[in-house]
Batch of 3 targets.
Target 1
Amino acid sequence: MEFNTKVIHGGQKHDPSTGAVMPPIYQTSTYAQSSPGNHKGYEYSRTANPTRTALENSLASIENGNYGLAFGSGLAAIDAVIKLLSPGDEVISTNDLYGGTYRLFTKIYENFGIKFHFIGMENAQNIEEYINANTKIIWVETPTNPMLNIIDIEASAKIAKKHKLLLVVDNTFATPYLQLPLDLGADVVMHSATKYLGGHSDVVMGALIVKDKALAEKLYFIQNASGAICGPMDSFLVLRGIKTLHLRMQRHCENGKAVAEYLAAHPKIGNVYWPGFENHPNHQIAKKQMKDFGGMLSFTIKGNNYDSAIKVLENLKVFTLAESLGGVESLSGHPASMTHASIPKEEREKTGVIDSLIRLSVGVESKNDLINDLSKALKLI
């Protein structure tokens, strides 16, 4: 089954009692049992819910995994992975990543004795020098947030397997439409399903997908024991969103390319960060592991002027100034004060997240309207 068919039919069954094409929203907390322990596969909705099961089966299908798990947020999904560790364990993470992930790692789990190394992974071989007897996980975001760095998943997977480590890939920016980390050797794929999978800015959710049964059982235990699950209505919304993922991603990619090229040619723009440019440092790796280059990009105002960046953001009309990404509507953001504010300034700036950096989530509107919106705002600086 090809991807465009999987997003609609993968892992899905029509409702056996009614024939409903979409799974019902099972808005229930508990399930009747004929005798103690004798039930129809469901006992309590924290443990499992039929609507969530339908979503989890879809997640596994579109990522070419065997097991999917849905959580109450992307951070809840990340939290479940780190709960596989014990005090004294170490994680090697990319140094350019979502600020909430950095905050969870440093403000929560470092207090429990887990050590994190934040390094540049654009050359995957850099990972090797940080591996020691305590290393358990390599954490990869690619493309990274917000600098759109590209990390070689296959090369990272070879390193992980050589040292018997787990490779976790945050696939939020790319989605399985553009890249399939499990096929490239990753052990766990993570999503903020709030973003492109849901696709309509109306739900908050996270997801994990794995192939290995033993690893899946550990994560299912954590999911149930910790309880950070999503409800049936949210599960229904993301499942519905997945059914148009392929159509939306095509337009996100087309519009992203048009906006990136417009900005790159603009005299008031400094740098544009988008992996589709041939001069992007890892453009060839992006071409190798991605189907297209996505709808996320970041750019700076020439001269790195903070006030100019804020003026642009305040005067965009089609782009909405808001956190998050991946919805049908275009969003703009200021990483230094919004999504990445929890990362200390000196650490942010090492990776390029300076005060004049603007991040765009390019939606599915008319590309001409998006470019005109940027043009009008840029004329004001």
Note: The radius of gyration is 21 Å.
Target 2
Amino acid sequence: MSSHLSEQELIRRDKLKQLEELGIEAYPAPMFGVNCNSQQILSEYDDVAKNLQDVNIAGRVMSLTPKGKITFAKIQDEKGKIQLFMSIDNICPGEDKTLYEKVIKHILDIGDIVGVKGEVFITKTGETSIRVKHFQLLAKALRPLPVVKEKDGETFDAFTDPEQRFRQRYVDLVVNPQVRETFIKRTAMIKTIRDYLNDHGAMEVDTPVLQNIPGGAAAKPFITHHNALDVPFYLRIANELYLKRLIVGGFDFVYEFSRNFRNEGMDRTHNPEFTVLEFYVAYKDYFWMMDFTEKMVEQIAIALHGTTDVILGDKTINFKAPFKRVSIYDAILEYTGFDISAMDEEQLLDVCKKLHIETDKTMGKGKLVDEIFGAKCEGNFIQPTFIIDYPVELSPLTKKHRSKPGLVERFELMVNGKEIANAYTELNDPLDQRARFEEQAKLQERGDEEAMFIDHDFLRALEYGMPPTSGIGIGIDRLAMLMTNQASIQEVLFFPQMRPEAQD
């Protein structure tokens, strides 16, 4: 093993042995009694009132400057950084100077985790610091951190390589504090959503991740095997059909933050494992859902930014409700010049050919419409826009439009050229739903790996009667990208999926 270690790693392991010889535990078991954090000290200390005199704080050493009988260090905790002032006389008031001379001056490294007790004061250079009276090593770091150097306002040796950052997110979070802010905002966003739904009478629920039929969306699933039952199971692609079962069972407003899995491509907006919020409301339709959704998204922007204007790259996205509403056929007409509203499959194939859009034999009418919109229209909708009234072939779980034959009551929310949410007036006619599933089965026979399975238990549930219902799925990761000014989904996932790391 030692042959694979760097010089720095070997030195740190030697220091570990030195600690053992000194009788000092490198990874002590007792809890260190932290009573404050760096932010509290920096914001609350009053040099006149001399408050916050006795503080206990712990964190990771981020800089270390020994100067004879005095050592300056900076430690970083969850809230930020603060300076330590460590002198041999304060830490070792008696004759035994081992802790300072051997541990702090020669064994302590950047990256080590320490706990200190002391009093707050302001140095001659005006920096709020802790005069350390008690020092304890809490964890010895055996690998050196990437040292991010700053000089004259410039940063050197920054830990910026995306592959390294995503593989070693733990290091990324330590040395790139701005990354932490992205995830803090993501958490605040989810809390805002949860509070908003709860305040409107919704109930949070849990539904199965392992499903014997992957339903609720058009997507290719991951397949696994249950040994005890000796049957195949699928990681869920959506939780829709289970939430609708709960509507059948008598709950009028249910929601779930669902971890979903789709065995498809990966890019800057797709990860095979992702989070979706789905909620379903009885006795409502897609018009109500548009009103509710735009107000909720507006509230999220205000909660995170204090305004409905959110900066995204070189754009400003305005989340002030109401949002624009455009039918999918009108969007295609505007951006391609083709009115496809009355076209059959052959005519749509011809349009795709003229627009240089690739097709294959598995694509039915609905998939062709979707390909045209995705290739030629989607990227044009930068400001929040509801794309509404989809063809029935593209929406097997959606209620037929009450006044427009051949269409369904569905919308997708587009922001910055990407779909953020997908919603319907839900199909609650069990006979119509069975016919739609059978059409999906025919697409499967043609080789469409994303076509839906027939879920006989869900059909049975509908036969007991589901009230008129509206439902929605919102991509939490994509919404987080918008709200935190990130161009890649990997930046809003703590641990995005990656190809296995090559081993030496």
Note: The longest helix spans residues 177-199.
Target 3
Amino acid sequence: MKEIKFVSADEAVSHIPSNCHVHLSSVASVPHCLVAALCRRADAGDVRGLQFHHFHTEGPAPYSEPRYEGVFFEQGFFVGPNVRANVNAGYADYLPVHLGESQKLYRSGFIPLGAALVQVSLPDEQGRVSLGTSVDCSVAAVESAKLVIGVVNPNVPFAYGDLVSLDRFDYLVQDDTPLVTADFAEPTPTEVLIGKNCAALVEDGDCIQMGIGALPNALAAQLSGHKHLGLHTEMFADGLLKLIRSGVIDGSRKKIDTGQVVASFLLGSQDVYSFIDHNPQVQMRDIKYTNDPFVIAQNPHMKAINSATEVDFTGQISADSIGTRIFSGTGGQLEFVRGASMSEGGKSITAFASRTNKGKPKIVPELNPGAGVVTPRADAHWVVTEWGAVDLYGKSLQERAKLLTSIAHPDDREALDRAAYERFGPHYHNFSI
């Protein structure tokens, strides 16, 4: 392998032209040294009109801040807490897309990338680097951008899967800043109950998908007695890592990628990042592969477990917004819902607490005005709260209203019943489910 020539972060970003689209590797692996260098260029009045694209990012996000209005403009595919206020104030924006199709925006030229800024591992003997915890649409960005800048960081794990040759990079920068880590709170009693209700729908040998946070960790804790589970997911964190290490997740029943964990991006403790480093059990793949419903469906008994901000009593599932306020993003929810639905013996499951932390109902007669429907009612199957689990598949609107009312918070059921009566007429009370 030839000797690598490095340049400074300021030198590397000096080649990014104004008025172009810029991709950032995301989540725990944002190349913050390059972002800081771009801010220095901006402060000097040397660049304008950069539009940033990425999945949700951890850490500071100056590209979304009002002080850089007209210089930077955030258009993320998923909205995290660090940009949420600025997105909802109009200083930044959200670009709705199924995460599995985010790479298509680059590869097809719908978003003509001027630059890709990614963080990568140390190279192997063949001169290949790993995108570590942020493979997602970064592979497509590296393939598609006119200018590709890589930050070689020894803290980025070398994860097998979709690797990138050093020849792809125009400039390389050195940095040894640790990746951002996240510790998730212990599950609440409500989340434990939801976890138990979800776990009852998962059988030995199933292949699962879930996200990160206290609720997925609560579910993971309830799966500790299961056997031979598989994992094909967008991302995972510490809760699922425990199941992998204990042998509960061994992938032995998977039809494709047998015996392997498949994911596309990660956020968790340093323990998670160390686990995937040079681990042949883990494949970090392009989001085009992980989120393709036809790929997902090839594993039998796929159980896709996702969440919601609100569900109306006909089964419309909102997950990216609260009314008109953007909260997160479409993500890969519908891709996994459909993949699981097509899988032999598969189930799609939407799990959430029946009320918000402020006591507002999440099962409602109508979604808040402006709320985005991420999973249409025709795709809604199992819905789970701390009060139980119901299957909406093959059920009429009135049947759905009754089923969802039965797992709403007890103090909300009378109002839901009254709203259903007003909507569907007096015959609503004349049949049982």
Note: Residues 9-174 form a domain with the Glutaconate Coenzyme A-transferase fold (CATH 3.40.1080.10).
